[in-house]
Amino acid sequence: MNLDAFAASWAPRLLSVLRIMTGLLFLQHGTAKLFKIPVIPMFANLSLTSLPGIAGILELVGGVLMILGLFTRSTAFVLSGLMAFAYFIAHAPRGFWPILNAGELAVLYCFVFLYFAAAGPGPWSIDAARKK
Question: What residues contact residue 77 under an 8 Å CB cut-off, 6+ apart?
Fold first, then answer.
């Protein structure tokens, strides 16, 4: 088997792996804000009705949905918008360059979620199982 054929056969599965890992990493933002796991001092007195509180709810629910691959395209689209909003509200005012305003993770999440909104969840997902 040549490299192109091998890569083509694994690409859909790796899409699922990327989705699961992105969901797991994103989920910890929600658990940190809502459940204080892990503890992040800046979220110690977080109100659920504040912008970070609402973001935490979206991160928690969206992270779980992404891990499961359930409603992936619509969830990813919402989360992409959340990350664009987070970048322009929290990071961009601190400077133009994402590496200097600590916004590179928000930008990366934004575009990874936008990719999932277009590409879908991959074969290892509830969405794929529901189509069968």
Answer: 113, 114, 117
| Nearest partner of 15 among 106, 127, 119, judged by Cα | 119
Name the pTM for this structure: 0.94
* Residue 10: Cβ within 10 Å count: 11
DSSP for 49-65, please give it: TSHHHHHHHHHHHHHHH
If we measure between CA atoms, which residue out of 8, 10, 22, 7 comes closest to residue 116? 22
Tell me: the pLDDT tens digits for 33-89?
999 999 999 888 899 999 999 999 999 999 999 999 999 999 999 999 999 999 999
Place of tokens 């800046």: 42
Orientation of helix 3-34 relative to helix 104-119, angle to 10°: 120
The ranges assigned to domains in the chain are 3-126
Going by C-beta distance under 8 Å and a sequence separation of 6 or more, which residues neighbour residue 63?
23, 24, 26, 27, 28, 29, 30
Strands (E), the chain: none
